[in-house]
Amino acid sequence: MNRTPAEDRAHWERYADQLLLAVRPFAAEDHALINLPGVPSHNGVHSDGLEGFARTFLLAGFRLAGSGGADPHDLAGWYAAGLTAGTDPANPGRWPTFAESNQAKVEAASIALALHETRPWIWDGLDDRVKQNVLDWLAPMVADPMPGNNWIWFQGVTEAFARTVGGSWRQQDLDRVIALTDGWYAGDGWYSDGLTGAQHRNFDHYNGWAMHLYPLWFCRILGAAAPRGLLDRYRGRLRRFLEDQRLLVGANGSPLIQGRSLTYRHAALAPVWTGALFDATPLAPGETRALANRMLDHFTAHGVTDADGLLTLGWHRPFRGILQGYSGPASPYWASKGFIGLALPKDHPVWTEPTAQLAVEQADFARSLKGPGWLVSGTAADGVVRVVNHGGDHADPARPHADDPCYARFAYSTHTAPETSGDPTVAGGSADADPVDNAVVLLDATGRASHRRPTTRLSLGETTAVSRSRAHWLKDATWDVFGGPDAPYTLGPWITVGSALRGSVEVRAVRVDPAYGDDTGGHVLRIGGWALPVDPETAFGSSEGGTARVEGAGGLVSVALGVDQLAHSVVAFAHDSNALGAGSATPVVSTEGSVAYGTLHVALIHLGGADPALPHVTTRTEGATLVADVVWPGAARDSIHLPAPDNDAYDPWKDIRRA
User: Phi and psi (nearest 5°) for 562?
Assistant: First the structure.
């Protein structure tokens, strides 16, 4: 949409006001709780009501801060009343304590941050009794042994605020938060959200809307009391992260559809705005606003609010398949973090300079992101950004997991969503989950697909990557972001997968090798391409020989082409399993019979606006290593090296194997 800089700012303010006013009819009379309609989270209705207050208060905080307290809708008075009632221990409708609801610790950070940003208009106007009630409610955060992930920052930000207003805090807590965060830094601007099995494996949007945002606000709240050099350390890391993050937004305005808590939507803008606020960004002001505008307009155009103006649980349409058990009716309001730009004054360059093109519109790019272990490719012709995943899988490497579709797939993009199913309020994911899209699996005698997690990264170049996993079949294939149940499983062969990614095509090379405890073989190797949303009534897909092709909505084409030893093809159609549409289809290629151990299987996986010019692939051996040599249109070259597994090396699963 073409708007002037002044119109942009006004548009953002109007949209924020609409979101804030829409929740008021669902608030308690005293404003302490905002109980939005819908299926409660596993935290319960009382906790969800606090979430409604805290997350919208965060949005109100940014709105008030950037307007210098100008307040036509009495945001300050409305939320001050809620603070007063919510922290009154004698009020039957008070907020749950941390002992009553663990989730309250999460919401405390939003409240603390909003109180800091609105201090002249809210905190300073509260009477002493209310201030003490607020501090008493926050006080149990002190010395709390917070989980070893982004949750430590809820403690850090809360205690930092309490310290500045005479509340309880503890230096040991702040020191622990800083030290743990340094240990999770994976380099090149990326954090692992905690350590899974003592390894950096947890990469998703929490990098931006938690791991970069809170440390900088921690320093902002503490001011001169922040440890020397800490602000500059965090600023440098965010600046480096944004060099990568700017690549991960499509020309359609969508962020990468990968990881958990996707229903927070434009919260993906949190690090972009934070970089501008803290002078910690490599982006020009016009690119910052263009990226933010495009993302806000993307979600607005896809109808993310309902008839009452409330944000829905889903991505575009309401869709429970991408939710987690902690997702409740007010959870989407962490999208408030996408409005941090409103905290910047109207004369800041991001609100005054002309907008610029997004990275994917400026030129094609292909590179690797070392932190998460991703290959990334953007193509200006169709505006699509693709990521091929040979890095983090959000899994403990010491035990087999069911594949969470938002972490374990080989590829993600800004224009497609992984196939998901199941209701997280029941089990976290479907017990009959069968990895198809962007999956490399072995099918057992009953047709069940193997699972990938955990996976080990073997190599990562600029345009190539290799990883390995042990095929396994679980009796209970329920998945969730924390690994799913510790269910009985059967182990199978090693699967080594290598990728070369340029433009719209990934060359995906696979070898399968026997492993300790393996059965006698007889598995079919199946490789899935990109799932596209399609009209269930008019969907078009074709398969012939070793090629499967799907034409999706918006002119996108998804192709899986078997180059070597993958002669069978099919299009897999699904209903209500994709966040982008009621129907979806995935091109699939496979071996015609049992996969041959120790041989190379190669597929070309395409996602783009048209059928591509294809690379030429030849195969060879270097001792025990299988090599796929790729010559791309234009003469660029890549080689994918797939080494044989060392079955004499220590197998961490060997001693814990269960039938």
Answer: -80, 120
- Which token pair is 613? 């010019």
d(CA 452, CA 404): 9
Distance CA 568, CA 450 (A): 19
Q: How far is CA 104 from CA 152, 155, 158, 636, in A?
A: 13, 11, 12, 53
Distance of CA 183 to the CA centre of its chain: 21
Torsion of CA 394, 314, 419, 412, to 10 degrees: -60
Measured CA to CA, the distance from residue 202 to residue 391 in angstroms comes to 9
pLDDT of residue 426: 41
Nearest to 601 by CA among 632, 625, 566: 566
Q: One-letter amino acid identity for 412? A: Y
Angle between helices 230-245 and 270-277 (to 10 degrees): 130
CA 432 centroid distance within chain: 23
Give the per-residue pLDDT at 475.
Answer: 85
Low-confidence residues of the chain, pLDDT below 70?
A: 1, 422-433, 483-484, 517-520, 537-540, 648-659
Residues in the chain: 659
Query: Please, which residues have CB within 8 angstroms of residue 378's CB and are 6 or more apart in sequence?
Result: 247, 250, 359, 360, 364, 365, 366, 384, 385, 386
DSSP state of 508: E
280-282-283-285 Cα dihedral, nearest 10 degrees: 50
Contact between 442 and 595 under an 8 Å Cβ cutoff? The reply is yes
Q: What is the pLDDT of residues 345-358, one digit of tens each?
A: 999 999 999 999 99
DSSP 337-391: GGGGGGGS-TTSHHHHSPP---HHHH--EEEEETTTTEEEEEETTTTEEEEEE-S
The one-letter amino acid code at 527 reads I
Q: Which two tokens stand for residue 551?
A: 């034409």
The pTM for the full model equals: 0.96
